[in-house]
Write a structure and sequence with these properties.
heterodimer; A: 819 residues; alpha+beta; 5-stranded antiparallel beta sheet; 4-stranded antiparallel beta sheet; disordered N terminus; B: 466 residues; alpha/beta; 7-stranded mixed beta sheet; two-stranded antiparallel ribbon; globular
Chain lengths: 819, 466
């Protein structure tokens, strides 16, 4: 354990600077004096008097003591004092860098002058931070739902749904892993306990398992015309899932069909419908669907199989309709496109409807015959005792292996003995396997597994800055890049003390990035940064967007994740995020975007010739999640860009402001376009000051409809996209918007870094972190903004590698550095 | 735990003193002084509350049906005759029965032209919220906070599970249903907030596991609890070791974790105490999955409610016994017509009578619940004395799809708050919300000023004995 006092650390940093060991190769990187000096040299020297004169002549017109707009008064702000007032200065820097201040309509100094002013404030603060670095701290993290699922999958080889045990995560600053909002309650902890019992039984199998019922619901928006992902070829609709069977035994599969509004089978006009149940691709039952079945029948809409023998373990099971016909039908209208957005729509003659599976229910096991070999059992039982005296050593070996992975370190004295105590407790219930299962349950319920504790050096004094223990660093790194626990190689390196060596650390970062598990940066980090989870909450109006179905939603999510993963994997430049002339589509999504010649379910890299569609702002995911069900929302789109990309959230609307819904939908017998309604809304002066900033951003994207499809008309009128960005730049198209955003490189890059850092640290980024954010951004700039430069910058940063000891015993919030 | 005024020992203190292995069904020392006296007002939050919804109104809300007193009895006050009514199965329980007739659920009515016809898809959302659901098939659903959730949010934190939501019919919770309404309006009656519908559990076994822990049999569950307890004991020891290497904030959080672990231990002990305290108290075997038979399914759900109330795992249930537009046939009712078609009886006397028979069949399920509640002795009466059961429908005359003069009655003593044997007829146009508001006052939420579209309090005083 290395520990530095603040002074010692600063001295060490100066030494590193002096020896030239800065940049990505250093173990710990602070904003170097050289860089800070270079920055000051490059910025036109602006005497304090001039900075202050801008503040005094421009800023305080709104930000004064008597009328502090935005709750900020700069009347007594002295630029020479920026370090002491860093919190305020950082707010100013953010707005200045985004070009949002002074606001539109106010006479503003030259852009270069304003940027220089921001640069000067930054220079002062960053310079001070080099002399007195402050890494911040947070409390320990808890395995959240996503991390729990991953850990169980990696540890035991089974996919579980953590939502069945653990409540919804609290999000803070975009992410679900922010330690200080990870609440603890008895009900939550009981969830972990319950999960430990269930998961250990699912993984090992449970010869004692009693029958129970598991229901899989088919989304109503799932298309019944196409094959469900994972279902056998030659089927349509239905559902395919991986179900974990707890034991070898008989199971009954029940299929609950959707009825129409009158209680009869939805799609009853389709002849000769049959539904197949399959286990691992093999048909185990073929059931005829009685077109005259009805809710009033004794069994309701449920048809069920005879008991079917299935072996224990995860098996892919499917219930899907046999495909009777392919190709186009003769319908003139396809109001809901073979999904069931609304069972009233389409239940009429002349419209082809197909039976729709509602629930797929697995009941069992009955007549358990034992537990046969499964993949997860192979993974767990690394040895098999063949004689009674082999049992204990084998159990020790198995449990040591499992606990080391789960606890993310080697075990200390006594820990295996504790687990053997649970082994002994379980053995009388069912021998060796029951013993292992009981001990596995204890591992999964252990605080060492559930929490990621970080050790404070025993002799640390309040205010001390210290480097994290190597094993804690290994866990941080692996959860940052992989979203799961560290592998043996990383733990070994940590326990050998190798991570303190900058080259070895760097090698580990590169190794983790090259591993397929680093796709977690896309599925965990980027998906939350872009708020992709909101996509599931949007249900576009079924009549206006009949083609909208669950397959399209999933494709959109996948597109954005694959795209971000590609940026990381190919070490692309960050700005490709906005400008890339390529993306990932499958047939469904390609058809939606109008990209030709893409056949099949698999995603592939395609070029985007259409400039409007390029980059993230052309992704259906982002465009849909910022829409309402029946209309686009330039406000939500503008707000998304401001918050997610520029890091400058607009203020919340003042109370009692009527929302857009309160404006007229029609005028003189004609439906108004979204733009027309927005302009009516904006004519209200209390709305105007903010909406003139937010709306033009979203209006530039108005050619994308609710589902992100390209359109040229809205309510029969040609879509009008012209507008002016808040700084006066005219923007009329997605390409214009991109270009205008790219002028604000500094804001885009810092917002990315800030999000990446928040996710990596598991805490919100505060004003005192901004010197580090800028430093990482500068390093990345020096490396052509390559994606890995950002990731390495975060991994090498002081807040990632260090922490500070709390000041006093009573203090439980991080109030920032002492000044 | 019903912490009331006066000196009493907290259960935790008691457990510390007694050690972990003692079964403790009722530690008299933990009962606050005065709790046993009949005159004492029930503690706020101590009353158990179950809100039951049946859809499609009642035959007795039809013009002809009401003239035959097929739902509301002819007389108000105490001397009412239940014989012609679908409520007749409750005759043996009339001392626990309070009928409130003639109230309206205006929130379920159409307010704009676009909303006309969507009554089935608004009703359930309006029932316990007495608010008007926003017409949408999107994710922007909005109605109101439901009565059960107001109660659970105020008092539910005293129990392991603040509230639980159960249902009988298959519900979807996602997507649009019809007439521009999201299915969630039809599929739940509990709303934690106006935009936060709560899912309802249909599988008794799933509900059972949540309440009492997993396991295939009583023996299996006992074994699992034993393992759980050993693990928890061990965790407590582990925490001591971890604590040493942490900073002050982390230690605080770890202490909180330890407190959570102790609370789980208490919960386990509470269930064990419950199991060892009498032969009839063993938790019954839960069948796998959803039974096909309506009455069997309902009885299981009632069993769960009684057990959960009895062991104080939760004090609040909402229970949706039907689903709007359901075509279910109830063979046990003696009627072969499906529920929804039967509800559109066209005002024909024979078909109204037939529909009344279905209504009667639904009400007929309740005595089982009442019997089981009455069989549980508590220090201050039976469990039935300490429970408030609301039963009603957000629709009136199903043939017309109106929401006026809707079915509503309350069962149980509600902790001494309801006298029973009473029929109160509200003045015309009284919102059902008024009754619910006053019931919430009786549940201890005296400070609630309004609820849904309420216009004031409702008086349960037995008025004219006409």
């Amino acid at each position: 354990m290395k520990r530095f006092g603040v002074g010692a650390l600063a001295a060490a940093m100066l030494y590193l600077v002096a020896t030239g060991a800065t940049g990505g190769d250093a173990a710990i990187v602070r904003p170097s004096l050289a860089a800070a000096a270079a920055l000051e040299a490059s910025a036109p020297a602006l005497p304090d008097t001039l900075a202050n004169s801008i503040i005094q002549s421009v800023c305080i017109r709104c930000h004064n003591d008597s009328r502090p707009r935005g709750n900020l008064s700069l009347e007594s702000f002295d630029a020479g004092d920026a370090v002491a007032k860093a919190e305020t200065a950082e707010k100013m820097i953010r707005k200045l860098r985004a070009g949002m201040m002074p606001p539109p309509g106010v006479r503003r100094p030259e852009a270069a002058t304003l940027q220089a002013m921001a640069g000067e404030l930054e220079g002062r603060i960053d310079h001070a931070a080099v002399a007195s670095p402050y890494p911040g701290r947070r409390t320990f993290q808890r395995l959240n739902r996503a991390e729990y699922e991953r850990a169980v999958q990696d540890l035991l080889g089974i996919e579980i749904d953590a939502a069945a045990y653990l409540p919804t995560e609290t999000m803070s600053d975009n992410f679900d892993n922010i330690a200080d909002v990870q609440m603890m309650s008895a009900t939550l902890m009981e969830g972990y306990l319950r999960a430990s019992g269930e998961v250990s039984r699912l993984a090992i199998g449970d010869p004692e398992a009693g029958p129970r019922q598991v229901t899989y619901k088919v989304p109503k928006t799932g298309s019944q015309a196409v094959r469900a992902e994972g279902a056998p070829i030659g089927t349509r609709g239905g559902i395919s899932v991986v179900h974990i069977f707890p034991a070898d035994g008989e199971y009954i599969f029940k299929l609950d069909m959707h009825s129409g509004p009158t209680g009869f089978l939805y799609g009853m006009t389709a002849p000769n419908e049959k539904i197949e149940v399959s286990v691992d691709g093999a048909r185990v039952a073929l059931l005829e669907i009685d077109p005259f079945m009805s809710e009033s029948d004794p069994g309701g809409m449920v048809i069920e199989t005879a008991p079917i023998h299935v072996r224990a373990g995860p098996q892919r099971i499917a219930a899907a309709f046999l495909l009777n016909a392919e190709g186009p039908d003769n319908d003139l209208l396809k109001p809901v496109d073979y999904k069931l957005a609304d069972s009233n729509i389409g239940s009429a003659y002349g419209v082809t409807t197909l039976p729709h599976l509602r629930d797929f229910i697995v009941t069992g096991p009955f007549a358990v015959t034992g537990v046969s070999e499964t993949l997860s059992r192979k993974r767990i039982f690394s040895c098999r005792p063949t004689a009674p005296d082999e049992e204990e050593p084998c159990a020790r070996a198995i449990l040591t292996g499992l606990a080391q992975k789960a606890y993310r370190r080697s075990l200390v004295a006594g820990e295996v003995e504790d687990l053997m105590m649970f082994y002994d407790l379980g053995v009388p219930e069912g021998g060796f396997e029951a013993g292992i299962r009981t001990a596995l349950q204890a591992i999964l319920a252990s605080p060492h597994f559930i929490f990621r504790f970080e050790e404070v050096p025993a002799d640390a004094q309040p205010g001390d800055v210290y480097r994290l223990a190597d094993t804690d660093l290994a866990t941080r790194l692996s959860y940052f890049i992989w979203g799961t626990y560290p592998d043996r190689e990383l733990i070994d390196a940590a326990e050998e003390g190798a991570l303190a060596n900058p080259q070895a650390w760097e090698a580990q970062v590169r190794r983790l990035l090259a591993d397929p598990r680093s796709s977690a940066l896309a599925t965990r980090f980027a998906s939350q940064w872009f708020r992709l989870q909101d996509l599931e909450k949007i249900h576009p109006d079924a009549i206006l967007y009949p083609y909208w179905d669950n397959g399209l939603v999933q494709a959109m999510l996948r597109e954005t994740e694959l795209f971000f993963d590609h940026l990381v994997r190919t070490d692309a430049g960050f700005f490709d995020l906005l400008t890339a002339d390529y993306t990932f589509v499958n047939e469904r999504l390609a058809r939606h975007y109008g990209i030709p010649d893409v056949i099949g379910e698999d995603f592939r890299l395609v070029a985007i010739p259409d400039e409007a569609r390029r980059g993230l702002l052309g992704h259906g995911s982002v465009l849909t999640l910022t829409s309402h069900a029946d209309r686009t929302s330039p406000v939500l789109r503008g707000k998304w860009v401001m918050e997610v990309l520029l890091g400058t959230p607009p203020p919340p609307p003042p109370p009692d402001v009527p929302d857009l819904e309160a404006t007229e939908e029609a005028d003189e017998g004609r439906f108004l376009t979204v733009r027309e309604r927005m302009e009516m809304h904006r004519s209200n002066p209390s709305c105007r000051s903010c909406h003139r900033v937010i709306d033009p951003i979203g209006l530039a994207l108005e050619n994308f409809d609710v589902t992100g499809a390209w359109r040229i008309k809205d309510q029969g009128r040609v879509v009008e996209t012209t507008g002016e960005l808040y700084d006066g730049t005219p923007i009329t198209s997605p390409a214009d918007l991109r270009a205008a955003l790219l002028v604000r490189k500094e804001s885009l890059v810092r917002t990315f870094v800030q999000n990446l850092l928040a996710f990596a640290l598991g805490r919100r980024i505060e004003y005192y972190d901004m010197p580090v954010v800028r430093d990482i951004a500068r390093q990345a700039a020096a490396a052509d903004y390559r994606m890995t430069a950002f990731i390495r910058g975060v991994a090498n940063s002081a807040p990632f590698q260090m922490s500070v000891v709390e000041g006093t015993v009573a203090e439980d919030v991080d109030t920032g550095p002492e000044r | 735990m019903d912490f009331i005024t006066g000196k009493h020992m907290s259960r935790r203190t008691a457990l510390k003193g007694l050690g972990a292995t003692v079964a403790l069904p009722f530690l008299d020392a933990m009962l606050p002084a005065g709790r046993l006296s009949a005159s004492s007002k029930a503690a706020a939050g101590a009353t158990r509350f179950a809100a039951i919804e049946m859809v499609h109104g009642a035959a007795g809300c039809n013009e002809w049906g009401s003239s035959q007193f097929m739902w509301s009895p002819e007389k108000t006050g105490r001397a009412f005759d239940l014989a012609p009514s679908s409520l007749s199965p409750l005759e043996p329980w009339r001392d626990y029965l309070t009928i409130i007739s003639n109230t309206d659920v205006e929130g379920a009515e159409a307010r704009t032209a676009k909303e006309i016809g969507g009554d089935h898809f608004r009703s359930s959302a309006a029932f316990l919220t007495q608010a008007h659901p926003k017409q949408t098939e999107g994710s922007d659903v909005f109605v109101g906070t439901s009565m059960d959730q107001y109660y659970a949010q105020r008092f539910g934190q005293d129990t392991p599970i603040p509230s639980m939501q159960l249902c009988i019919e298959n519900v979807d919770q996602a997507g649009g249903c019809a007439y521009g309404y999201a299915c969630v309006y039809t599929d739940t009656i509990s709303w934690a907030a106006p935009d936060e519908p709560l899912p309802m559990i249909r599988d008794p076994r799933a509900a059972f596991d949540q309440l009492f822990g997993s396991g295939g049999s009583a023996e299996d569950r006992t074994r699992r609890r034993r393992t759980d307890k050993s693990i928890l004991d061990w965790v407590v020891g582990e925490v001591v070791g971890i604590r040493r290497s942490l900073g002050t904030t982390d230690r605080g959080r770890l202490d909180q974790y330890l407190e959570n672990i102790r609370e789980i231990e208490r919960r386990i002990q509470r269930i064990e105490a419950h199991n060892t305290s009498g032969e009839h108290r063993e938790i019954p075997e839960a069948p796998p999955g959803v039974p096909d038979d309506f009455a069997e399914h309902v009885r299981l759900m009632f069993d769960l409610q009684v057990l959960a109330f009895q062991s104080d795992v939760t004090r609040v249930f909402s229970f949706k016994m039907g689903r709007d537009g359901s075509g279910r046939v109830y063979p046990g009712s003696g009627v072969n017509s499906a529920f929804h078609p039967a509800s559109h009886h066209g005002g024909r006397e024979d078909r109204v009578t037939e529909f009344a028979q279905i209504n009667r069949y639904h009400v007929q399920q309740l005595p089982y619940l009442l019997e089981r509640l009455a069989a549980v002795e508590e220090p201050n009466g039976t469990l039935l004395d300490n429970t408030m059961i609301l039963y009603g429908s957000p629709m009136g005359d199903s043939n017309l799809h109106n929401h006026k003069r809707c079915p509503l009655f309350v069962l149980g003593g509600a902790g001494g708050q309801l006298e029973g044997n009473l029929h109160v007829k509200a003045p015309d146009g009284t919102p059902m919300a008024n009754v619910m508001l006053s019931l919430m006052h009786k549940l201890g939420m005296d400070d609630m000023k309004s609820f849904g579209d309420s216009t004031g309090d409702f008086s349960f005083a037995a008025v004219s004995e006409d």
